[in-house]
Amino acid sequence: MSSWLTKIVPSIMRSERKDRRTNVPEGLWRKCPKCDSVLYRPELEKHLNVCPKCDHHMRLSARKRLTVFLDADSTQEIAAELEPTDRLKFKDSKKYKDRLAAAQKETQEKDALVVMQGTLNGLPVVACAFEFNFMGGSMGAIVGERFVRAANLALEKQIPFVCFAASGGARMQEALFSLMQMAKTSAALEKLKQAGVPFISVMTDPVFGGVSASLAMLGDLNIAEPNALIGFAGPRVIEQTVREKLPEGFQRSEFLLEHGALDMIVHRHELRAKIGGILRKLTHAPELATEEFLSKETNEETTEALPEPPKDF
Amino acid sequence: MNPNFLEFEQPIAELEAKIEELRLVGDDNQLNISEEIERLQEKSTKLTEQIFSNLTAWQVSQLSRHPQRPYTLDYIRLIFSDFDEIHGDRHFADDAAIVGGIARLEGQPVMIIGHQKGRDVKEKVRRNFGMPRPEGYRKALRLMQMAERFKLPILTFIDTPGAYPGVDAEERGQSEAIAFNLAVMSRLQTPIISTVIGEGGSGGALAIGVCDELMMLQYSTYSVISPEGCASILWKSAERAADAAAAMGITAERLQELGFVDALIDEPLGGAHRSPERMADNIRQALGQSLARLQALDTEVLLEQRYQRLMRFGAPEAA
Fold first, then answer.
1. What is the pLDDT of residues A148-157, one digit of tens each?
2. Mean pLDDT for the stretch of residues A269-292
């Protein structure tokens, strides 16, 4: 990495190495953290951040996630007006207020959950997605409140609710306000359950702590993307507690499926069709013709020739 | 250093040691010595009052984990009668980190569920330091659903560092076990009163803590993460636990100001462990009052209030 390229795309390489800041805006090339293939960024984006070479699922922003999941032009954002506040005047090495401002600037989101109402192959749904780049997708009061409003909307309209989780857990800077969001979101979901309104939880890399131990595990169906890290306690905490090496594949989607915690693992490109089909069955909606199932993003073959990656990337 | 006293209590420990010494030599000049003992005891009480009138969040945190602090089974013995312990989740195992069973409170049958820590090394290990595994939460759920069937109010006692972070716990679905309890407790058709008697450690505490009324002992804590855990993540050093404790506002008093706590139960001077009997009396009284309030409500009203109580937490303030 001591070439001309370092000067052009230094931020990408550094961020990939440390596995932070996955959404570096600049740079035409990106290396797959799993198979090291050098990927043409527009091509990668077309594949919804799934490596075309090895199928590794990289993170996807909340807004992009919902835009590709819901039918084009069907979406309406919910509870966007809610903004986080610093009730505790929390300060560690930085002020919480400053951390919020930095996260808002970086992600262009007000907080770590985006909620939209729309249709999925014509079926009305409410969907929400966690923005991992916003303070690790952590759940504070606004995330909880938005989630509850989303659930309440689904309940009121009797339409399915889908959540894409990606979160490190509770937001420490909001202390007990944050912890109580676990109970608050779970109580809202229980109302849906009692009313027979479907809730599908999709877990994407990663889902831990307070989010895993509340809303994410409460789906009528718990679905995960391949190879996502999912658990209650983080692997490092467990390693320190039990003082032994963790088993291969521990806390990966496949591990959870094997242990009975998940209903299925679904490739990102098939989520839209799969969840659409499930929800149509659960709500007794008529079956769709096969071609309508296929989502526009995944079915396009690349026609144009791709540029060659630089040699020493 | 006297292990029965925390670091900030050492001046009290020194006085107490002096009193003890005087008692041992108490045979000659009895009169003078007993006067001296009395004087020192008064001084010790004053000193304790002084030190305890101005505790930091970190000091309260240490008190909440004091090795001699009464645990759930101590309170069950002191507050209730006719306790029958019920074991196991009927699926996998009996988790000793959570105890539960039916008993009577002033004659009235109730369901009790609580975290249980161990006193000596062997017992600590058996109780897994009060850190439940999924089967513990599933046992709790089973008892709560049983309480609902038989119309028994549920009284939970919270005292855990957190849910156990281990490979086996993850394999058996720690997250799911906690989440499921949160959901079901929100609509159980019987009153639920939760009392934090020591450490309220995060999701592992909340999993038996969704309630109609939350009570906290004066020197108990409730937090989203331990002060040490928070410090090592946000300050990059567990040494800054005192700062983290203060920043998160984990003490009963602070949490009452923030609107989370329905009743704060006073502790005897120097903390619950100085007089478990008096502590138990205070808890019994608070439980009785809370139960009377809740049992006066129709189930529908009770459940609506419980739901609205949860919805209030962190809700945007009305303009």
1. 999 999 999 9
2. 89
Neighbours of B149 (CB within 10 A): 10
Going from the N-terminus, what domains does chain A have, and what CATH number goes with each? 1-48+306-313 (no CATH), 59-293 (3.90.226.10)
| Entry pTM | 0.91
Question: Domains of chain B (ranges plus CATH)?
Answer: 8-54 (no CATH), 61-312 (3.90.226.10)
CB contact under 8 A, B183 and A182: no
What does the pLDDT read at residue A243? 85
- CB neighbour class for A311 (10 Å; exposed up to 12, middle 13-18, buried from 19): exposed
> Do A135 and A109 contact (CB within 8 A), yes or no?
no
Q: Which residues contact A16 (CB under 8 A, 6 or more apart)?
A: A22, A30, A31, A33
pLDDT digits (tens, 9 = 90+) for B127-180: 999 999 999 999 999 999 999 999 999 999 999 999 999 999 999 999 999 999
B61–chain A nearest CA distance, Å:
15
**Pick among B129, B170, B189, B261 to test the A interface (most A CBs inside 10 A):** B170
Residue of A nearest to B306 (CA): A187
Please list every residue in chain B whose beta carbon sits closer than 8 Å to the beta carbon of residue A232.
163, 165, 169-170, 174-175, 178, 203
Do B49 and B269 form a contact (C-beta atoms < 8 A)?
A: yes
Looking at the complex, report in whole angstroms how far the Cα of residue A111 sits from the nearest Cα belonging to chain B.
14
Nearest CA to A202 out of A257, A280, A262, A145 is that of: A262
Closest chain A residue to B162 measured between Cα atoms?
A233
Q: Which residues of B touch A217 (CB under 8 A)?
A: 173, 175-176, 179-180
Interface mutation vs chain B, best among A82, A98, A176, A203, most B CBs within 10 Å: A176
Q: Which of A304, A206, A305, A301 minimizes the C-alpha distance to A256? A: A206
Write the pLDDT tens digit of every residue in A61-86.
999 999 999 999 999 999 999 999 99
Angle of the B174-185 helix axis to the B134-149 helix axis, nearest 10: 20
Which residues have C-beta within 8 Å of that of residue A193, sequence separation ≥ 6? A199, A218, A220, B183
CA distance A298 to chain B (A): 32
Residues A83-130: tens digit of each pLDDT? 999 999 999 889 999 999 999 999 999 999 999 999 999 999 999 999
pLDDT in tens, B193-236: 999 999 999 999 999 999 999 999 999 999 999 999 999 999 98
Residue A151's pLDDT is 98
Residue in chain B closest to A222 (alpha carbons) equals B176
DSSP B123-151: HHHHTGGG---HHHHHHHHHHHHHHHHTT
Dihedral sign (CA B70, B74, B75, B78): negative
